[in-house]
Amino acid sequence: MKHLARFLGLLLVGASPLFAQSATSGADSVPQARQVTYCELSRDPAAYNHELVRVTAFVTHGFEDFHLADPTCATQGFSIWVMYGGKVQSNTPYCCPGESAKPRSESPTVEGLQIPLVDDLTFRQFTELLRAEPDTTVRVTALGRFFSGKKHTVDGATSWGGAGHLGCCSLFVIQRVESFEAHTRTDLDYTAEAGWYEKEGCKFRALHYQSQVSIAYPDETVEQAIAQQRNAESGEATWAFRDPRRVAVESLKPLYPGQVPVPKRVKRTSGRQVFRWRHGKNQIVVVVTRPYWLSFYASSDSVVWVTTMIKEAGCD
Prior knowledge:
- The chain is an alpha+beta fold.
- The chain folds into two domains: 2-180, no CATH class; 204-315, no CATH class.
- 13% of the residues lie in helices and 33% in strands.
- Strands 3-4-5-11-8 form a five-stranded mixed β-barrel. A five-stranded antiparallel beta sheet has the order 12-16-15-14-13.
- It is globular and about 60 Å long.
């Protein structure tokens, strides 16, 4: 995703690819794995390097995006790219060179370790979901091999990487998908891009992203979304369950103090609404969703509306 650019100052200048291809395919049998959380991996990547691990987290998948993510674990300089073991490719466009849907002729070898794949019914159902929803988020429990990648320190800030889009990330190579949550609700937004690609409504000469809530790179905005869910459940802001326009307006006020935003709704679905507000010559786009991932932090079936994207277009 384009928001990856915020990390480019830290990541992998001149880094070499993390993985190469092997000549033979591994067996379907999977040895004992180490149970870990995403947060544990992020706190000390080197401690789990080359380990076979079992992790429950979210997978985000789309253009330049195949990440393992956990909304409760805010990280900087650390993210996990996903690929499959065995001969199956993920059909993920990214730089560089990306993966196609065409099977590999050989199973991958990463840092000398050959990675097999259990290509069973659960795995095929999981990959079919990703094919059916080109940009999506899925809750999954998977077993695979973790590679921390290279550690870099720039101006006191540490990052890990070598795999994925522009060498962004550490790497998790799936050997078995043990389970995943099917997408059965019609009131939620399952996308991973969170409104990044919503149209600006004008021919623009400049575009500024004011805010984005993305679990691919969880930060304080994700924590704030979880807090909004809890506030609404406590009775402090119950309007967030039913009034996406007010959610849009409240999110604009801190960015435009002294203004009275009157956004116009230009798109409406059961899980996403898009608003535009003309601010001088500029067009402000506000995307408000009921994020699928937020349902896992709700005490009931009700999920609040959350502003997941605000961008400002300097229109001609």
